[in-house]
Design goal:
Length: about 280
């Protein structure tokens, strides 16, 4: 595996490759990330992974400085997955000048759910992903459903900007107790780690209730409020716990609910100092 930090070296290394499968990450790799490398290998060749903690997507009071950086470990893991190039630019390599040109997703998708609680987050994501796509020029790129809204926003961006890249969705990889793997799980205290799988359990419970009760709009709001209250009682600080339409993440209308339009429940909540997100598609 080649470990490359400069954009010009990356271009030299990938010249003539037209089936590159790309997996962007922020490093501190776990099994969830590695599953993406394996999926990438079934869609293209060679596989290129990037490791870059993107300052643009962190708010002023978020954990950019504290975000775990474990480059040597990450390189060993990628090597073990037969990744051809690990592209790990420094900030100066990727942003030699202030990034004044930005890609901003539309309000309805970019400022709801995660976007409501992390203003500017998806603009930072779209800008860095566009930049990485321009550096790597992949044929396909793989993103995790763990970040459901991000996946949808990237898909729409690629479509609207006519980027010639196929976006592949990868299922969420979980610990045996159901907790979605995340680089941020390492911040959880032992007590919080024991509590953390409840987020996924509650997603499953709401999913079952929606399937069996077939609520109207008012009843769905009441159900969601009940789950928010349960999280609070258990010591969480929830940001949202909401069923949305799978197709566009808008709130379901009465018609959607009576027609059983496919929904996904999305949740974000803080446990101690750690903010966890998860989601579950209602079958
Ligand atoms: P991150 O390093 O957190 O920016 O994530 C890089 C990519 O890995 C994104 O496409 C994430 O959606 C994906 N990812 C993160 N955690 C998981 C997981 N537990 N299962 C599947 N994909 C994941």
């Amino acid at each position: 595996m080649r470990h490359i930090s400069k954009i010009s070296d990356l271009r030299d290394q990938l010249r003539g490759q037209n089936r590159v499968a790309f997996v962007p990450t922020m490093g501190n790799l776990h099994e969830g990330h590695l599953s993406l490398m394996r999926i990438a290998a079934t869609h293209g060749d060679p596989v290129v992974a990037s490791v870059f903690v993107n300052r643009l997507q962190f708010g002023p009071n978020e954990d950019f400085d504290k975000y775990p950086r474990t480059m040597a470990d990450d390189a060993a893991k990628l090597e073990g997955e037969n990744v051809y190039v690990m592209f790990a630019p420094t900030e100066r390599d990727l942003y030699p000048e202030p990034q004044d040109y930005r890609i901003t997703p539309p309000n309805d998708l970019g400022n709801t759910l995660e976007g409501e609680f992390r203003p500017g987050f998806f603009g930072g994501v779209c800008t860095v992903v566009t930049k990485l796509f321009n550096c790597v020029q992949p044929k396909v790129a793989v993103f995790g459903k763990k970040d459901y809204q991000q996946l949808m926003i990237i898909r729409r961006m690629v479509d609207q900007m006519s980027m010639p890249i196929e976006i592949i969705a990868a299922p969420t990889v979980r610990d045996p107790d159901g907790l979605a793997m995340s680089s941020r799980n390492r911040y959880l205290s032992a007590e919080d780690r024991a509590e953390a799988p409840h987020l996924y359990r509650l997603l499953n419970e709401l999913s079952k209730e929606v399937q069996s009760a077939r609520p109207n709009g008012e009843q769905l709001l009441q159900l969601q409020a009940k789950y928010l209250a349960t999280l609070q009682e258990r010591g969480w600080k929830p940001d949202y716990f909401e069923a949305r339409r799978q197709v566009d993440l808008m709130r379901p209308t009465e018609e959607d609910l009576s027609n059983q339009t496919p929904l996904v429940i999305l949740a974000a909540a803080k446990l101690g100092q750690t903010r966890l997100i998860d989601n579950l598609e209602i079958e």
